[in-house]
Design goal:
Elements: H1 5-45, H2 53-64, H3 69-76, H4 80-88, E1 95-100, H5 105-122, E2 129-134, H6 139-145, E3 154-159, H7 162-169, E4 178-183, E5 209-213, E6 229-233, H8 244-247, E7 255-259, E8 270-271, E9 277-281, H9 287-294, E10 297-298, E11 304-308, H10 314-327, E12 333-339, H11 347-357, E13 360-368, H12 373-382, E14 393-400, H13 407-423, H14 430-438, E15 443-447, H15 460-471, E16 476-480, H16 482-486
Parallel strand pairs: 1-2, 2-3, 3-4, 4-5, 5-6, 6-7, 7-9, 8-10, 9-11, 11-12, 12-13, 13-14, 14-15, 15-16
Helix pairs in contact: 5-6, 9-10, 10-11, 12-13, 13-15
Length: 491
């Protein structure tokens, strides 16, 4: 023990330092143990954190397909592990979706911070998919994204003032493959006095897909001859007759989805030699105009057709489509989809279009009232007034809306089809035998909404027909909902 005062104080100081060092070591060890225990606890509380990083990364990329820019930053800030994964994925930051309403300063300020970070994380050479929905110019944001326009394979643009549209479309897009354009306020048409003389959209060598909502395609100087996929929808002061001039230029068009309400004042033939998939939509109130539009089209390569059946004047529109098939010399269709939206089916009109389209690979009937299916299935199974044998359909898919399930009619239809196939013998026409073999009924599916007591009051015979259908393996019969409904109390 030191005997001088100074030595005694030095000894006490050394003892304190030693104890402090020991406590620091204990604190460090406790902190390390705490981190380990907290990680184990988080894994128990959040099993998703136990997923391999590769799987988590795939989930992140799927999430990013529909997420706007702020949501990407929220996901990346959940925990250290997720932040590390998100920062390691350049493609996580390549879809930049901005949705900024006019006057929202908070959104604007946030975008000014997040956009440069996202661009840096995406890398200087990554292709960027841009989804831009803005109501005002936001010069700072446009200045940030304008230099990246040469890296955009896809542009989804929903903007307000025409001036802003012109500003964005005046950039160069050498990698652009898909363009979707819609106004956030008023429709885009009658721009002839303000359209800029320099319109680089006319020089987009890779552009193939164009989707326009309430945009007059005539004001966009697009390279229409190279476009293969077009979707056109007009509702705000525009009519489908404005599409005709542009469609006449789409000689390589393969897919067309169009809302139609009016045809041209002067007849104009539009031949689409490469078109294989066509979707035509119209309302009953505009069926006459829709017919005028359909009458302009010819599509000799057509393989897939989707259209709706309206209650009022449906036979007029359906007959026009049947005439389109005949005019185009379409021998058969791979798929025919008819949406009735719960309206009454015009059996004669449906028979006309099926007769023109058959043999069919797939026939889909959606939102059909079950009450309409009795005569419809009888027509398909008998051939109607046009044929003395069933229409050849390889797959029949039915999605009803309400009503009693016509199990008897479904059984009748399947029996007629299988009987027709068995009746072909060696003396039958070779082409008939080949058609029966190629288009033999392979699958029938019908969906019964489980929320409705569809089978209330069903008879034992109905149950017998249902059991017969459910047991079939050729053709395959898929019934969704009915098994649950049969077990409902009181059914």
């Amino acid at each position: 023990m030191p005997d001088s005062p100074a030595a005694l104080l030095r000894f006490k100081l050394a003892t304190i330092d030693s104890e402090m060092a020991s406590l620091h070591r204990q604190l460090t060890e406790l902190a390390r143990n705490r981190e380990t225990v907290a990680l184990e606890l988080s894994r128990l509380a959040y099993p998703v954190l136990q997923l391999p990083n590769e799987i988590t990364a795939e989930i992140f990329l799927k999430y990013a397909e529909d997420a706007n820019l702020p949501r990407l930053f929220v996901l990346a800030a959940v925990c250290r592990s997720w932040r590390t994964i998100s920062l390691s994925l350049q493609s996580f930051w390549t879809r930049l979706a901005l949705d900024i309403t006019a006057g929202d300063q908070q959104q604007s300020n946030l975008a000014k911070i997040q956009l440069p970070l996202a661009l840096a994380r995406a890398g200087a050479h990554s292709l960027l998919e841009i989804d831009l929905s803005v109501d005002n110019a936001l010069e700072e944001l446009l200045t940030l994204i304008a230099p990246t326009a040469a890296r955009w394979p896809a542009l989804n643009l929903s903007v307000g003032p025409p001036k802003l549209v012109h500003t964005i479309l005046s950039w160069h897009f050498p990698k652009l493959q898909r363009l979707e354009l819609m106004p956030s306020s008023k429709p885009i048409y009658s721009w002839s006095t303000t359209t800029p003389t320099h319109q680089p959209l006319a020089n987009c060598p890779l552009l193939r897909s164009v989707i326009l909502f309430d945009v007059d395609p005539n004001v966009l100087r697009l390279p229409w001859c190279q476009i293969t996929h077009v979707e056109l929808n007009a509702s705000l002061g525009m009519t489908s007759c404005e599409y005709i001039t542009v469609l006449a230029q789409t000689i390589n068009l393969e897919v067309l989805d169009v809302y139609i309400d009016e045809g041209p004042e002067d007849f104009m033939e539009v031949k689409l030699p490469q078109l294989h998939t066509l979707t035509l939509r119209w309302f009953s109130a505009t069926v006459n105009g829709a017919v005028d539009f359909i009458n302009t089209l010819t599509a000799p390569a057509l393989r897939n057709l989707t259209t709706n059946i309206t209650s009022a004047g449906s036979h007029i529109g359906i007959n026009a489509i049947a005439d389109l098939l005949e005019r185009s010399e379409v021998v058969s269709l791979d798929a025919l989809t008819l949406h009735s939206h719960g309206h009454e089916l015009g059996i004669t009109a449906v028979e006309h279009i099926v007769a023109a389209a058959a043999p069919l690979g797939v026939l889909r009937l959606t939102e059909v009232d079950w009450d309409a299916l009795d005569p419809l299935l009888a027509m398909l199974g008998s051939g109607g007034i046009y044929h003395d044998s069933p229409f050849l359909v390889r797959e029949l898919h039915i999605q009803p809306v309400s009503g009693a399930v016509p199990y008897n009619s479904l059984k009748f239809y399947i029996d007629k089809r299988t009987a027709a196939a068995r009746s072909a013998d060696s003396e039958s026409d070779v082409q008939v035998i080949q058609a029966l073999q190629s288009y033999g009924l392979r699958k029938v599916s019908f969906i019964v909404p489980e929320r409705l007591p569809m089978d209330f009051g069903s008879t034992d015979q109905d149950r017998e027909h249902f059991d017969h259908l459910a047991a079939l393996t050729s053709p395959e019969v898929i019934v969704r909902g009915s098994k649950v409904i049969w077990e409902m109390p009181g059914a």
